[in-house]
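Team,

Forwarding the record for the chain on the shared tracking sheet. I've put the sequence and predicted structure together so nobody has to dig through attachments.
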Amino acid sequence: MPVMVPPASKRILLVDPEREGRGRVHAMLRKAGYEVSGCATTREALGVLAERQHDGLIVSLAAEATDSRSIAELHRQASGIPILVLAVPGNAREAVRGLRDGAADYLLSPPNPLELETRLERMLERHELDSRIAFFQEQLSKKDGAKQLEARSPAMREVLERVQRVAPMRSTVLITGESGVGKELVARLIHFNSPRRRQPFIALNCAAIPTDLIESELFGHEKGAFTGAHVRTRGKFEIAHRGTMFLDEIGDMRRATQAKLLRVLEQREFMRVGGDQSLQTDVRLIAATNADLDEMVLRNAFRQDLYYRLKVVTIHVPPLRDRVADLPALVEMFLDELSRANAVPRKQLSPEALEALRSHHWPGNVRELKNLVESLLVATPGDTIAVEHLPSSIRRTRGGTRRSGLVPGTTIQEMERELIRVTLEHTGGNRTHSAAMLGIGVRTLQRKIRSYGLEIASTRRGPRRRGSAASGSS
């Protein structure tokens, strides 16, 4: 029978005030192939950890001298080391408190050797995977995030300087700006340049979640809380503990949920849907919106107290049309990135084509630019993207000529109709992409197309079923 190679490189520190229990678990771990050291108190454990790095901690709650407060202290002082709690029967409540204070898992003592080995191995593997993911996210964020927010324009230099100043803080941040300017990217830069960088970054689009499910997404739910709630489910605030929560389109959150979010910000606690127990959370909140929250507060559509709590620090990301100096660098970056992603040859942009792009209004901002570059890479023959390869809506903007033919006296409805028509033409009739560029939902766009009598056939390959466009957030 083959012998498994033991995890000899894994070092475990066992904290147990009772010598006998410590010896028993020590023997189990040594038999499983771990390198084990032991101590009796939290203070001793911190001294051992200061002298030598360990891969995991096992803490026994076998006596009154060790309780969940010890777990909190170890988790705070030995940040990054996963903790497995051993609780005596009848003291499981203390173990659950330990989980809330930072432990990764718990077992009843004395543990079954096989279960101890299995749970410990699973805990270490999960921790190693989370650490790798966090590391790669951090590296990608620093590499790609800084590129996509390259500050050649004064407006973006100001944004990056503000990001650098607020990142080390724990203050709530409100990011404003039009759809597609890169608000989530700014949030990620704040997180990955903060002390929380190795903890979770959890993003949630409030406009993409049905109103009757948003609280379950945020706070989790208990089994049986509503139809279909077959198991207890953790919410985003539990998953993001000690990390950063990014709530996009915060203006779409209903007022009842706004009140609960305010409680989380002020009390740092919440309850799962259907639950009766308050849970503690340590989360830095970053919110974003393309709506005018001041105006929404005046209309009583957004809570004033929550608004003031969110805008402790405000960062406004300018639209692409106000930072055209960044456009050439963005184009070059997207040409590099998207040619690799689509496995197509890297193309060049002619000076005339670049000038046409600089003259465009960019209603969809950086997102629109990226989508355009991708379509040009795939569809343009040869190795140079010339003016004639650009959509007609962009070619007409060259030389500062009027983009849509509108003149003073044009009604708002006429301007909206023309903007929708030009955007549909630019995307080849793709309603999903058009809605994203316009910052409205697909259903809203479909309604306006019918209202204005606009029907532009899609140029996408393959049959298009009638009425099959995907829904989106408005």
